[in-house]
């Protein structure tokens, strides 16, 4: 085991000792009551299975057969979640074949950042994560179940489901992916048309056709954004079946994997003798493995927020410094768009996660001695699923990259450091996705151009006011200001300026999508402008310095000069109503900082 990885893990364990101990004590006490439904009165239980078939009712009455609660994010508007329509029937059949039962316990909201980019609805996106956690808890609050299966894929859905699941951490738990859509329009062609549209070279019809050719069927988007980073995390943290994350929805293997996931979660129930609760899987070591995977694959910057919130739900305290220190020693061994031209289907075909996990284990960068849904040891996740005689079997994955332009051995990395960096300086603390940047873009120094709205930036771009070296500052975009929307709509605009030869960077207290990376972007800057953070003191023309090598984000002013500045303000009232935003006012008031997970939850495990 890498001494540095072990040292970072040890300090997380020490930092989390009190809160983790409280969490584990509560989960272990709750686990003593499995099956939950034995606590129910006859009237309670009758309500719980009233709509079931007689045979199912009889099985549920018997406490010696496991009963699965399904939490689903199915809807048929979003491509990533549409395949889940058929999954409950598969799960129920597979459970029945093992003499067990399953019910859909509840559903969660599942919004799409792709639909809401640049729209008012995006200001609900981050808060939807905590709403999803609560929805999952409501579904499981009926105390009917011995195990749980979670059907979710995209940006806030998986982190929210994990947070909710951890409050029922005494239940054996498995996450079930739906898979990516087949490859469509190549990513470089899509990016080219987006930039040409931004410059007025092509019209809306051409742009819509390109987008339709990219996002064309059921499944997740194929770039390596937040949704697919979530899938990587669930696999490397031991909550997916090995090699299952990137199997397409219509592949015949997909439904067999769902049935196998059902069988596996039943195998690890108390009734079946291999009791493996979620709290035994999501440990400090598992979260460190997740961060290592994030760096090695150049995953989404959103996970620097979500992993912290997820860990806190388990009584584990992560910091951005943990991310930064791991980034220094974890090499980048995958190139998937936006870090390269390949999509996740190409990545999967080139060896995918089984190969990456094998390489990271070989480099002593992952904790192998962890518990997963497959049992002890992460080595099981170097395997891939195959179909034999109509059943899923797991065999050793490739030990050699099938395309070194996409995945490389750990001895020949694309970069010696991970794809995410933590920045610090007199403007606050933030993060940057550096894996897609060219060497000439990793140090930027330029005058500030200041906007309090992404829409104002669009107007300035259209007027030609940004045709110069500049550091674009988009502030008042933090969680307390307006819910911390993603600002990915800015990427084509800034990309055009960069392609013209200008030195361009972005500094914001908002978020960028997992699809960002072409333009140097210091994001999640905290403390945010709305609560008096340093970004509120920046003035037009101030020289801002960004260095991804040294992790510095600073304005070229002395502390005395900066502190003497008055704080700018912004009228945020328009962001507080419309498309339901008024319903989330309490969340804007209660939300924590991004480096604390940007969550409204104050888990009692942390109270002294």
From TrEMBL:
Cofactor: [4Fe-4S] cluster
Cofactor binding summary note: Binds 1 [4Fe-4S] cluster.
The EC number(s) this enzyme carries: 4.2.1.12
Protein name: Phosphogluconate dehydratase
Domain of life from the UniProt record: Bacteria
Keywords: 4Fe-4S, Carbohydrate metabolism, Gluconate utilization, Iron, Iron-sulfur, Lyase, Metal-binding
GO terms assigned for molecular function: 4 iron, 4 sulfur cluster binding; metal ion binding; phosphogluconate dehydratase activity
Residue ranges of every copy of the Dihydroxy-acid/6-phosphogluconate dehydratase C-terminal domain listed in the record: 405-598
GO biological process, one term: Entner-Doudoroff pathway through 6-phosphogluconate
Organism field: Reinekea forsetii
Residues of the signal peptide: none
Binding locations of [4Fe-4S] cluster: 154, 221
Residue ranges of domain Dihydroxy-acid/6-phosphogluconate dehydratase N-terminal in the record: 67-379
Any one GO cellular component localisation term in the record: cytosol
Family of the protein in this entry: Belongs to the IlvD/Edd family.
PANTHER family: D-XYLONATE DEHYDRATASE, PHOSPHOGLUCONATE DEHYDRATASE
Pathway: Carbohydrate metabolism; Entner-Doudoroff pathway
Reactions mediated catalytically: 6-phospho-D-gluconate = 2-dehydro-3-deoxy-6-phospho-D-gluconate + H2O
